[in-house]
Every structure is written in structure tokens, then in C-alpha cells.
Amino acid sequence: MWKWLHPYAKADRAYQLCNTLLPYFAVVTVVCMVVGWVWGLAYAPADYQQKDSYRIIFIHVPSAILSMGAYSSMAIAAVVALVWQLRNAELAVIAIAPVGACVTAIALITGAAWGKPMWGAWWVWDARLTSELILLFLYLGVLSLYHAFEDKKAAGRAASILAIVGVINLPIIHFSVEWWNTLHQGATITKFDTKAIDPSMFWPLMLNIVAFAAFVGTVTLIRLKNEILQREKHRPWVRQLLNRG
Amino acid sequence: MNPRRKKRLLAVTAVVFGIGAVIGLVLYALQENINLFYTPSELIDGKGPNHEKPHIGQKLRIGGMVVPGSVIRDESSLEVSFKLIDTGPLVTIRYQGILPDLFREGQGIVAQGVLVEPDVIEAFEVLAKHDEEYMPAEVAEAVKGIKHEKPKYNLDSGN
After folding, report:
1. ipTM, interface predicted TM-score of the complex
2. Nearest CA in chain A to B9
3. CB distance A76 to A141 below 8 Å
4. A86: which of A177, A213, A229, B153 is 20 to 30 A away, CA to CA?
5. A7 phi, psi to nearest 5 deg
6. Which regions of chain A are under pLDDT 70?
7. What Rg do the C-alpha atoms of chain A give, in angstroms?
């Protein structure tokens, strides 16, 4: 059933696949981000209570969703790396980690900037904010664990195990606003209630989520290409590639 | 799947479920403490199965809705007092300082302060809690029948 996947276990085929996918991701990123930001930040109507301050959701919500999305992808790559022991999957873990750390940081910083005028505080130790901060530390932990080992095989295994263990934080982040009393408001999009967010705000938000997803994909592909080249730098196909360029 | 991979997959699954169970139990045990705030009824009737009540002088957070019409401002200082409600009893909050943008009557807030009487809190921080609904002003008026304006207070200008 999975036979068609087998060639991509080879580094050179995976590298080619990255090259093929990259332009699509890049185009979707640019188009959706330009349209989404202009639509959301300039044309969407102001909120009835928060006025223009609510517009931070067009950056905060996509980055928060992607911080969890990137982590899930990283954990899936980690399972593949541990169970099937594919080196490309290990490289994917390490390619995603810094990207995920960045979107998590964006989510935390934009949230703080919104919290100050709206809530009256930059930071509150409520369950949602704290668990998102732990997510940032998990990303940083995966990265530093990988770089702490001289032997890259052991490094990949250690980083993968931490990435998998950290998955437990994802449902905690998502449901924190339901399980406990938090200052952070509940989920809007997954409420599946058309009244929770007006369509004139919902569609630009969706577009921005797609844009952020494509952006994370683009940067990850670029990083994965570099990781593959670096790991395989003594192989003939890499030398050939470098000589050509 | 070959047996070695199967074994590794089982090991990974077991680790995730094991740690998931551990963290689940820890969170369950800490359940009451992770909540950011008391609600007014928890403050008056006690919290949890043992109905534990906070004692006078305890520092705590309380979250609830500002009762419409209960906001009283002092004319010559920043002192303000208002009542909070969730489902039943009322709790009075006294606060001195600038209230956040989203502070309105009928809006959820979280206050941090010291319990001075069983139902009075001297707050040193008031945070506004926002709900998960976003809509333009015209829609809000049509759907909810409310017109949201910053509350006006009848302050005598003095001359």
C-alpha cells in the first residue's frame, strides 16, 4: 500500500520532492498573505467592542494554530523517525522545530500586545498562556537536545523522543479554556456557530490561516533541503549538484 | 510490518499513553488550583466537595460579570466599586485605579485582591475578560439588540 513512498526514503529523491513542492507553497504563501493581510487589516469591519484592536487576530490566531499544527507534524515525523528509522524523518523533525518555535513566539508576543489594552495585563499565568509557553520550551528543548549530541544518530533519536512526549501538551492547550477558568476567551472557530464570528471577519481569518500554514511549509522545505545537503555532503549526488551550481 | 518495527511502534505508543496518564492524573489532582479565579458563588458557598471558603485577608482572584447599574465612581478620585455576579450571590469589589478598555457593565472581568469581608474584595488589579464573539457594530446591534458604547457616567462638572 505504501510502496510509492519508498523511493522518498532516499535522500536525493526527498531533495527533489522538496524542490518540486517549494514553488507551490511559496506562491500560496505570498498570494494568501498579501490578500489576507490587506483584507483583514484594512477592509474588514471593526469589532463592536474592541474596535480596531481585534485585528491582531489576523496574526495571533493563525500563528497560534500553526504553533500546534507544526508541533503535530514534528511529532508525526518523530514517530516515523523512531519506528521506521528513516533519516529523512529525523531531518524533518529538526527542520520544523525552529519554525514552530518562531510561530509560537509570534503567538505569545502578539497575544501580550493585545492583552495589555484589552485585559489590562501583558501576561497572566492562566492555563492557556502557560501551556502555550510550555510549547515554546518544548520546541527549544527539541532543538537544544539535538545539538547537544556529537553523534547525530543519537541526537535524532533523543530529539524525536522529546518531540513525541510533548504531544501531550497539545490537547491541554486546546482544551485549557474549557477545563479551567481562564482569562483567555474560549475557542471561536471550532465553536461551529455562525454567530461566533461574523463572515466578514471569518473569511480573511481563514485566508490568513492558509497563508501561515503555507508559510510554515515553505520555510520548513527550505530548511529540510539544507539539512539533507549538509548530512549528505560527501555523497556523489550532492557533489554533482554543487559542481553544477 | 516487521516485528522489530512493530515492537518500536508499541514502545512509542506505550510511552505516550503512560506519560499522558501521569499528566492527566496530576492535572486532575491539581484541578482546583489551576483555575485562575473563584466565581462569586464559589466565594460565598465554598468551593469543591468540601465547600472550602477563603478566609478573610486571603489574597485571591475573582471572576464574574459586572452587574449593570452597580458601578459607583467617586467623583474626586479614581475609586470605583461594583458588584459581580455569576449565577446567584453578589460580591462587591472596591478598586482604585484605571479600568481596562473592555470594562463595561454586563462584561466579564477578573479582579485580584484581598478579601476584606465575606463578600467584599479590595482589588489591586482588574482585568477585563473578553468573550469569543467577534462582529461589526451593526451586526451586534441587529443580533443582540445592544448598542455598545463606552459607559457614560453622570458626573457633575461642578460649575
Report:
1. 0.72
2. A83
3. no
4. A213
5. -55, -30
6. 1, 191-195, 245
7. 20
